[in-house]
Specification:
Blueprint (H helix, E strand, L loop, with lengths): L9 H12 L6 E5 L6 H13 L12 H8 L5 E4 L10 H12 L8 E5 L7 H12 L5 E7 L7 H5 L2 E4 L5 H12 L3 H10 L4 H4 L2 H21 L6 H9 L2 H24 L11 H8 L4 H19 L4 H12 L4
Parallel strand pairs: 1-4, 1-5, 2-3, 3-4
The structure holds zinc ion (ZN).
């Protein structure tokens, strides 16, 4: 991806482009920001801009160097992440990285490495990397990426130039989804709101599947409230088959009641996150008192706590639905 293809983060890009043009790139950066917001995209674009032989201070996107960076096969650009089945980045991985950064670039201009996420380096790996940063190899660039600084040694952080990435404004994400993904405006706005400014999450298939499912859930929970109890056992059974699904549902249903409560109190859709089912929320608001909504919210929280404590999922969900239907 060339710099101009990147959505948002204009200030961060300007900083990097300026450094690139003035040959003032730092040898180590720390990209800090929420998941899916575009840190890795920016880091790889920078790597491409450095390695590209066709264009100065940006990438062409089409030459061998650009293509290799894009496909993850460039000999001078390496992404270090936990190995398959491992939870941490080990000291061996960091030592290997250090060795590599000391070699001369093969076909690019610099040796570049991304550590993503940097917070998963264990203590000894971080200490080993610190040594590398104290005497950075010539013509090398290290980019550490993380959603927080909590698990990273302060001494390591202090050796990196920090660049913070904020969630993209919802309207930026929404217009990208309309223009580039051909989505309908309402759908795009919903996804942007749901994923809180994370373009990566908005385009992920899991999120899109979740949107489709929330429509079904809204319909079923709505019917239950109106006293139509058909299918609630089946819904409980379906959801209970996977722990993750049960928890996703309860997370959603809490937001659903929260939205109805907001609408009930403010009589406005501002602050509502379930935009796709906004109409249902307005209708539902007439069916509840505030006390009832708070009660159901507390029941949803209870069911969630029960499932986290490994109480029988089906029982916890059936219990919850019985409260929703007013049977208990
Ligand atoms: Zn190129």
């Amino acid at each position: 991806m060339t710099f101009s293809d990147i959505v948002g983060h204009q200030k961060q890009l300007a900083t990097l482009r300026w450094a690139l043009a003035k040959d003032r790139l730092h040898h180590a950066y720390f990209f800090l920001g929420p998941e899916g917001v575009g840190k890795r995209t920016v880091a790889l674009s920078l790597a491409m801009a450095i390695q590209c032989r066709e264009r100065d201070y940006d990438s062409c996107g089409g030459c061998a160097n650009c293509r290799q960076v894009q496909s993850g096969n460039h000999p001078d650009v390496r992404v270090v992440a936990p190995l398959a089945g491992k939870k941490e980045i080990s000291i061996q991985q960091v030592r290997e990285l250090e060795r590599e950064l000391n070699y001369r670039a093969f076909s690019g201009r610099k040796k570049i490495a991304l550590v993503d996420p940097a917070s998963l380096m264990n203590f000894s790996a971080q200490n080993a990397l610190l040594k590398t940063l104290e005497e950075p190899p010539k013509e090398s660039l290290l980019i550490l990426l993380s959603t927080s600084t909590g698990a990273v040694l302060p001494t390591l952080l202090s050796r990196c130039l920090r660049l913070s990435f904020s969630p993209l404004p919802a309207e930026v994400v929404a217009s990208f989804l309309v223009a580039q993904k051909g989505m309908k405006q309402q759908e795009a706005e919903l996804l942007a709101a749901m994923t809180m400014g994370s373009l990566g999450k908005a385009v992920s298939p899991e999120t899109q599947e979740l949107v489709a499912r929330t429509r079904v859930w809204a319909e079923k929970v709505g019917a239950l409230t109106r006293g139509d109890c058909r299918g609630w056992m089946t819904l409980a059974e379906e959801l209970a088959s996977a722990r993750e699904d049960s928890l996703k549902f309860l997370e959603w249903v809490k937001g659903w009641y929260r939205d109805i409560l907001i609408y009930r109190v403010t009589e406005s859709s501002r602050g509502i996150s379930n935009l796709a089912v906004e109409r249902d929320i307005k209708q539902q608001a007439n069916l509840y008192t505030r006390e009832r909504l708070l009660f159901l919210l507390s029941r949803a929280l209870q069911a969630e706590a029960d499932i986290r404590r490994n109480v029988n999922r089906r029982m916890a969900l059936e219990n919850f639905f019985a409260h929703v239907a007013g049977l208990r």
